[in-house]
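Moderator note: this is an archived Q&A kept for reference. The question asked for a predicted structure of one protein chain; the sequence and the answer are reproduced below.
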Amino acid sequence: MKVRLTQIDGKLPNLALMKLSHFYKSQGHEVYFQPNVTRSLFEPEYDLVFGSAIFSTSEKKIQLFRSHFPSAKIGGTGSGEKWTVEDFTGEYPDVYDYSIYPNFKHSIGFSQRGCRLRCKFCVVPDKEGKNKHANSIREIWRGEGHPKNLLLLDNDFFGQPNWSDKSQEIIDGDFKVCFSQGINVRLFDGDAAMLLGQMKYYDDGFQRKRIYTAWDNLRDAEIFFRGIGHLTNAGIKTDEIMVYFLCNYWEKGLTTDVWERFNRMKEIGLRPYPMVYNIQDADPKIKLFQTWVIRRAYMKIPFE
């Protein structure tokens, strides 16, 4: 068979497509990884076409993809479809074809799935359920000859039952690690912070020291700053902590709630990052606020 794989959105390598590629190649089929959602003039006819979409804002790209490939199977959170990779691969091990992303030199994967929280705006609890083990650190690493850089996609690394053992595995193995989906600082304690402080934690490009977390509700201020205190007590600098904070959800627009959370984070040197809910329909002023904050223009230029 001839199989086409297309990543419709997202900047990180797509594990679902990587697993499908490995599976079909192992069966002797031809796999074509095509980045474009449209069919080019010289493409062959395919027996199977897969697309993956993470974001609901990709609806127009999904429609264009379907217009060129009407029988395509489109998965991912942004697609609205419920099928899984395992519906096609069966009980196939979690092995991935990195060759479709030749410029990606790191190792990527999940050490756990699920989350302790049930935030109304998040799809993880419905998709993955409660915390459970997925892979060991050594199973995620590509092995000798590859950088010891781990890009973890875990939604709640420190919520899994054996988080301490896996933390020690990262430390003892001298790995650099990116917790790309963030850590639940509201549920953090001193023991977890001390282990995190011993790790080589980085952004998703492994260029700068970075911890990602979130503060979505002003009512969580006390437990949020308690968690931040655990991190700073472990030697983690506030400037290394990027905080995604939800806007335009509880109240629409650039509200006092948004300003209060932003100013409190700015005062102690955290790195705020506004996440605007339903940004396509949001007030232009909050979109401008998002740009002003993300580019750190607030360090030099008043918003007014």
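Archived answer notes: The longest strand covers residues 241-247.
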